[in-house]
Specification:
Layout lengths: L1 H15 L2 H5 L1 H20 L3 H13 L1 H28 L25
Helix pairs in contact: 3-5, 4-5
């Protein structure tokens, strides 16, 4: 199993330095952006918890914020973290970020969507 992981890592690194990958600047940029957002979302997914409590409290009151906001925060924390892991694992397939906003600190007052 370790041999397969090492081989795939070496092949991935070699591909990134191949002439086609270097010539395709947008590929490298999109892959790097996906990797960066994936790692950031994996590490900061827990911030969805206070974010949703605050947003729900502001919108519907503190009782809803503590109850419904807490539940939504847990759900979005798990969601953002899992999407971050998935994006980091598949960064070689350059796609748009799976979560909106791509980073939790971008537009903190907006609800997260997937």
């Amino acid at each position: 199993m370790r041999g397969i992981v090492k081989l795939s890592l070496v092949l991935s690194i070699l591909f990134l330095f191949s002439s086609q990958a270097v010539a395709s600047d947008s590929y490298v940029n999109n892959s790097a952006e996906k990797l960066a957002s994936g790692v950031a979302n994996t590490l900061t997914g827990w911030l969805e918890l206070p974010k949703n409590i605050i947003l729900t409290s502001q919108k519907d009151g503190p009782v809803y914020g503590i109850t419904i906001g807490l539940g939504m925060g847990v759900m979005h924390s798990v969601g953002r973290t899992l999407v971050g892991v998935l994006d980091a694992a598949t960064f070689l397939i350059p796609t748009k970020p799976s979560v909106n906003p791509p980073y939790i600190w971008q537009d903190f007052s907006r609800e997260t969507s997937y």
